[in-house]
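Table S2 (continued). Query chain:
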Amino acid sequence: MYKFISEYYIVIILISIFSCKGEVNEINPGDDPNFTIISHSDQGFSTTNRKVSVFGIDIYAVPEVNDSKLLHAANVLAQYLDNNEDEIVDNIEVHNKMLENKAFVIMWKDNTDLDINPPDNRIGQDLGDDETNPSFVINNKQGQFDASLEEIWHIISHSGYAYAYPGVFGENPGTSLTNAMDIARGGYFPTVPQSYPSNAWYTYYDYTCEYECMAAEYIYWGITSILGAQANRLNEIGDEWILNTAELVESIDTSLFTLLTNQEYTFPTVLPDGTYRQQ
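Corresponding output:
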């Protein structure tokens, strides 16, 4: 679910935070061969007690988030950014924009964990502990979906691709991405319509999701379908998106497929499984 973090979240009183969360324990660095969990004192993230940095992109976590899920999220982010796993980000323009936007992910356990107050110049995305399933991809994409594949992609597309290529992947009307989306939705709808045309294949009915949000969801559905993440999920997602395989995207949404497979933009070609440089 697309939901970006910005400056309007209210910070709860620190006394209340500590009375609910308890004393901060010593940070376990974890056992990942590539990433280390560290403590931090970053402005605006007082509800979190640790983070992992991936190519300069921070993933924060509240105390209740499992270390294994925090490290899994780090590996997914690394695999999206460095899909060939050569320790160099694949698209330097996208990465630079993410760094300029001070992009971050915050992992939470319950809703109050999102009462944060990051600096105005940071763009963030949230990811829940319970919705993160490290075994999804390695178990042949069966069982509970791994939401890290969605939420981490959102921060890459929103703070990276949309800024690096605003005329192509910008989330506003009139870009290459949103022009393709308008076709997929059966027309240009600045707000969610009462019903979509019968020829639409992207039919999201979340009335809290405005046009830019719709674009973020659209590119997510496209890239993860091409990478194979949605192949077994049509019954779950069909009310929103029906092109759940690469073959369907290629044959029906030709504009989106062309964008997401254009080598100029260096999109990932392998679905992350949370094992960056471990094979």
